[in-house]
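Human: If only I could read C-alpha cells as easily as an amino acid sequence. Underneath my words sits a plain record pairing an amino acid chain with its C-alpha cells. Take your time, and here it is.
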Amino acid sequence: MPNILAIGFDPHTIPGFDPAPVAAGIEQASRKFVELGIAEDLLLIDFDELDGRAQAKLVEKLQGRSYDAVLVGGGIRKGPGLLELFQIVVNLVHWHQPDAAIAFNDSPDWVLKALEQRRGR
C-alpha cells in the first residue's frame, strides 16, 4: 500500500476565509485515498505559523517515516505572497524525502499519476 503525505493549510485558520468548501474537499480526498488503498498522513499548517513553526512541523513529519509521494496543496502553491513558503516546502520535501514523488494538484488522481511517474523512473 503506497503512503503519502498531504500538506496544506488548515482552512479554519485563514483569516477572512470560508473554510467549509476546502474542509469538505480535504475530507473528500481523504475518503478517495482510502478507496484507492493509499495511506494518507495529513499535515495541516496553521496560517499563523508561517514564522518558521510550520517548517519545523514539516521537517518533523518528513523525518518520521518514508513516503511514496508528497502532495503540496493548492493554498501553499497559489496563495498570494506565499511563493517563498512554496519554495521552502518543495526544498524540504526534496531534501528529506528524495525518493518521494511530488504532486501539485489536490486531486487523488494526480497523486496516482505522480506515483506512476515514480515507478517509471
